[in-house]
Every structure is written in structure tokens, then in C-alpha cells.
Amino acid sequence: MDFLLSDPTFSMACKQFDRVAQFLDLPEKTQKIIKWPQRSLSVTFPVKMDDGKIKMFSGYRVQHHLALGPTKGGIRFDPDVTLGEISALAMWMSWKCALVGLPFGGAKGGVCCNPMEMSKKELEGLTRRYTQELIPFIGPQKDIPAPDIGTNEQIMAWMMDTYSMQVGYPVPGVVTGKPVTIGGSLGRREATGRGVAFLVKKAIEFLKISGPLRIIVQGFGNVGSVCAYQLVKEGAILVGVSDLTGALYNPKGIDYLRLVAYKEKTGRLSGFSGADEMDGVELLCQHCDVLIPAAKERVITEGIAEKLRCRILAEGANGPTTPEADSILEQRDDIFIIPDILCNSGGVIVSYFEWVQDMQSYFWSEAEVFNALCRILSGALNSVMQFSHQKKVSTRIAALSLGIKKVAEAKEMRGIFP
């Protein structure tokens, strides 16, 4: 397993774990058992492309632990997918599920590809072939995939259909994030972004920040755009936004609806007339009340942490802040952090609701979904704040401690099978 440590994202997750394990004074044997992924699958498979040629793709699925129940985690289609990155994301998902009280262990999967350069037919072929490789390892009582970067409701529908065809009957509970017409949950697509916005509003109340909220969003995909919409419709001012196509800044505010219409028409942010274009790294350091990194890992580095001018750092992405940056932020009492395993947990919480609905064949209204989501998020935030205050540690250490401690206790109670 040591080869995983060469991956910077997995190394980062391990540093976080090691620090918290030391803080909790976990026995060495417990640390070894809950730190490393329990199962890791690497696959290579062919896909027939539109030009008739056969192209080989590499994919992964990692199940971090099964102490609390079946594993749960997204599927990522991205050119930068590695086994180390997937293992780190599975580990974070373990602590996240435990923190918010879900009966799941963490998992993650991915295929190294660029979905933006593939046709719908090619994506379907890739999805079905990858799912076929996973069939012995997934299932509603084993491991339940969901959407992540580069995947969506359609990908989940193909995965469900492929699995169902293999077993001979419909199994909607094998994945979450599906279209509502085939067993998906109302509100699942917006869940992560709405969860981030809800926790930002809770933090605003706690910090007693008044006046129109000025926000910057890095990553204008599903999470970032939904979060921005939720905050803007309640009076916040979007002063900066970025994605892979460019970064925009306007201290007077960016028209959210115009921006969305422009991106839907052009497929990019760059060239939008309602704001100035800016370097993406520079945008992170502009003055705002709330900075929301909602893209990928390791974007808040040591150098950026020193220059941040936000009051709240709401981590919509997984692992956006490096341990070196954390060391700096812990010395700054002017920035309140909503850590990733809490901040972006809305997606997996509503995925849990979808799984429950599928297993019972009884579906909830959108109001029921979001009322339950807010109740769980509020309880988890209160637990993190209380732990942070009592133990005099950062909110990140508090959140990780609560999640890791629960998994450690479950492993201790279950023991080691001979």
C-alpha cells in the first residue's frame, strides 16, 4: 500500500488522518485497520469509438471500509483520475458518512477519460463496460455508486440498467443520483449545492455578519452554480466566479442569470461581458465574505492561504485545502472554515435518502427531502462547533475527529475476523 503515498492527494488525506489519530490517541492497531482502503479494484477495458477504432481505458473502484454498512461514493470521469486520488476520496467519504450519521462506509470510483471529448454513444459504451467490470463488487447491500465530476443522471441510469440486465430484474437501489423517473430522489441533483448554501447561512448567523453577502465561487459546475443561485436569490452578491474555461471578477456584482444563460449558450465563462477576466489563482485572493472552492482538490495551497481575504471558507469540493495551508489558516482567527466533509455532505445525505426510498419503494416530496437534509446538517454543524469549542481545535480537526472516532469505535466493537 505504500505506493499510494506517492500520490499527493492520498498523501494529503493520510497526513490529515495521522494528525487526528494522534490527537484522539487511537491505538496503533486501530489506526492501521481504519486508515488503509479495504478493497481496491483496478480495471482496463476496451470501448469501440465512433470512428470504429478500439480504445483502452483504465478505471478504479475503492471501498475504504465496511464497518458501518455498505460503501457509498461517487464515480468520476476525468483525465486526471488515479488510484491514489480515488483512494483519498474514498477515505474522506468514510469520515463524512460517519460524521453525519449515515450507515455507510466510504467508496469512490473513476475512469481516466475526458467526457467532454466523447460522444453520447461513446460515453454509454464506456459506462456500460466499466459497470460490467464492477458488477461483482457493487450492489444495494454492497457498494452504491453516485455521480461525481464528469458524471450525471444519465451515467447513473446506464449503470443501473447494466446492473439490472445482468441480474435479471430492476435494481434501482444499486446507484443513486438517477433520474426521478427510474427511482431517483427529488432534490438529489441540487443537494450538495443547497447543503453548502445552508451551512454558509448558518455560519453567517453564528458570526453575526450583516449586510449583503459578497461571494466568490471557484468551480461553476453542479455544486458551485446551485450554491451561488441559492445565496444570490436571498440577496448575496456574486463578485467572482471561475471554472476550467476562465475566471471572472466584478466588485459591483455579476448578474447570475445572465452568466448562466451565457455559459449555456457558449459552454464557457470567458468572454462574458458583465465582468473582468482574471487569473483563477488571483481570484481566490480577492476580498469577499465567503469563498467557496467547489472544484477539485489541493487548490488552497500554502501561498494562497496567506493571501486569502474571506471571512468564511466554505469547502464545496473534496480536499481543497492542503495540510500546509491548514497550518497557516489555524493561526488566522479571521477566517471561519466549514470543512469539506461537513460542507459538501448534502450530496451523500440525499443519496442516502434516495437509497432508502428505493429499498422501500416509497418516495418523498421535495420538501420532505430538504427538511430532513437541513435537520441532519444542522445537527452535524452543532456537533462540530461544540467539539471545536470544548477541545479548542479547528473545525476541520473537530469534524475529522468525530468521523474517525465513530469508525474506530465500530471497528473495535466488531473486532478482527480470524
UniProtKB/TrEMBL annotation:
One of its GO terms (molecular function) is glutamate dehydrogenase (NAD+) activity. Keywords: NAD, Nucleotide-binding, Oxidoreductase. Substrate binds at residues 72, 96, 351. This is Glutamate dehydrogenase. The record marks 148 as: Important for catalysis. Transmembrane segments: none annotated. The active site is at 108 (proton donor). Residues 185-415 form the Glutamate/phenylalanine/leucine/valine/L-tryptophan dehydrogenase C-terminal domain. NAD(+) binds at residues 192, 222. Belongs to the Glu/Leu/Phe/Val dehydrogenases family. GO terms for biological process: L-glutamate catabolic process. InterPro entries: Aminoacid_DH-like_N_sf, Glu/Leu/Phe/Val/Trp_DH, Glu/Leu/Phe/Val/Trp_DH_C, Glu/Leu/Phe/Val/Trp_DH_dimer, Glu/Leu/Phe/Val_DH_AS, Glu_DH, NAD(P)-bd_dom_sf, NAD_bind_Glu_DH. SMART domains: ELFV_dehydrog.
